[in-house]
Amino acid sequence: MPEPSEQTSVTRLSTLPLIAVRDVVVFPHMSLPLSVGRVKSIRALEEAMSGPKMVLAVAQRDARVEDPQEKEVYHLGTLCEIVQYLKMPDGSLKVFLQGIVRAQADRLFFAADKNCWFAEVSYPSEAWKDSVELKVLVKQIHLAFEEYARIGRRVPQDLVLSLQQMMPSPSRFADTIAAHLNVPVPEKQKLLESAAIKARLEQILTLLKGEIEILNLEGKIHSRVRTQISKSQKEYYLNEQMKAIQKELRQKDDTAKEIDELRVKVKRAKMPKPAEEACDKEISRLEKMMPFSPEATVCRTYLDWMISLPWSRRTKDRIDLERARRILDEDHFGLKKAKERILEYLAVRKFTKRLKGPILCFVGPPGVGKTSLGLSIARALGREFVRMSLGGVRDEAEIRGHRRTYIGSLPGRVIKSMKRVKSKNPVFLLDEIDKMGVDWRGDPAAALLEVLDPEQNSTFVDHYLDTEFDLSEVLFICTANTLHGIPVSLQDRMEMIRFSGYTEMEKVFIVKKYLLPKLLVEHGLKRGQVKIDDAAIIRVIREYTQEAGVRNVQREAASLVRKGVKALVEKKKPS
Predict the structure, then answer these.
(1) How far out from the chain centre does Cα 481 lie?
(2) What's the pLDDT score for residue 251?
(3) CATH code of the domain occupying 504-572
(4) By three-state DSSP, how is residue 336 classified?
(5) 317 — phi, psi (to 5°)?
(6) Phi/psi at 3 (nearest 5 deg)?
């Protein structure tokens, strides 16, 4: 008995524009809304709209292929009518296709002038004999599909009711069910290519039973999860469901591996016991969360910070007084009191290993070498060096960090600097400590009290870490231009070393012995290629600079060196 269809009205269409669809197989009688963005598909639909509004829709073998060729699409598809056609502002199309009948692409060819694919098509005939066996098969499928819809809850109820009316037409009945099965594209394509109605129905029944078995298994897993958790643990429901599935499949997920790696990293970090306990608590929380939830990201970020801090990593001090004295003298002229204090610290460290780092404050005018001396001290001690500028800091959270209750919270700049330097005992320069301000966000100077107090900084608590971090081995050096902007309570915790301005003759000596050799190297010159005599240096100091330090003197000396380089270059030019 021939299957009633629209075939008789479309047999004359022997050549049709072709579109390849991804992740879907279009069946006859199936309605399909489609967003089209690929140029060749858009051109094919435009060609169809200029004619009888018919197009051949074929499934793509690999959805990842952006520009499929002849061998990358299935050759049996469905003739579709374009019911709705809408152009979007971005040039894409939104169309509504109505499947009509199976169509075999006997030959595909690309029309370069139209920039789209066409197909020469034929229409496979569908013939079947009415029999008791076929009716029983249709009834079994109908019952199985009702069970599938009831368990899965993925099929509209009105579709289940309408199937009763389709049962006299086995082909349409089979295609309607096939279109709503949750199976891979290759399986659906086999159903589309199955010309024998009975064979197609048997395949559908097999697939339906397999899907029902999977849904029943999912139901068991859901039930098992539901019995494992109490009402207070409902927030972990999805996580427990995932674990139950993994148990069924006997697989260990990536999250478990990540948790194991985090535990190993925490052990290797050699944290104090309170910090390690805090990390273990966070890891336990992370284990119960969905891997990609926002809270899990917060947990991971916290653990990454804790693991990366130098809890036990430190550099070994080079306690060699003569070497330290030589380095300090090489880098800076004068500054006897500051140099002597560092040498005293080294001498005492030679006798005791548990000496807390001194808190020094270099006070003096700009350009006298306060900041650069900190770098030289680090070189003399063989320690890492880190600098933190406090100029303009008005927020207490800059020092102590934000509490983790806030979105996007992070540790303060002290902990950030310790992470960056990767050492527990660096030379830590707090630059321009007198330039801090106070506003409604707190007093950063008060927050620095715990950092700079030798009696407290061994138990410094950053708001973000919420656990103690030992800063007692850090050699803190602060710099300031005056004591006016520093609170008395902060001054009381620091050892003040005053830097006086340089005399004119001291500046001349510094330029000749320290600055000029450095400038020559920076400008690619050899000693003697550019000379600046004492008279020129004195004139620069008297007429072009008015300062206690040598910062502007260095700037003007650099200008003279550049002029010398320019003169050398022009002299070498061929006439």
Answers:
(1) 42
(2) 43
(3) 1.10.8.60
(4) helix
(5) -65, 140
(6) -80, 125
Average per-residue pLDDT for the chain: 82
Q: What is the pLDDT of residue 6?
A: 43
Name the phi and psi angles at 19, rounded to 5: -125, 140
Strand order across the beta sheet in which 359-363 lies: 385-389, 427-431, 475-480, 359-363, 495-498
What do you get for the CA distance between the two ends of the chain, in Å? 104
CATH 2.130.10.10: does it fit domain 7-122?
A: no
Q: Which CATH number fits domain 321-498: 3.90.850.10, 2.60.120.10, 3.40.50.300, 3.40.50.150?
A: 3.40.50.300
- pLDDT, tens only, 420-479: 999 988 999 998 888 887 766 677 888 888 888 888 888 888 988 889 998 888 888 899
Count CB atoms within 10 A of the CB of residue 510. 21
Give alpha helix (H) positions in 111-168: 132-152, 157-166
Alpha helix locations (H) across 12-57? 39-49
- Report CA-CA distances (Å) from 328 to 333, 342, 437, 456, 517: 9, 10, 33, 30, 17
Convert the pLDDT of each residue in 46-79 to its tens digit.
Answer: 999 988 899 999 999 998 888 999 999 999 999 9
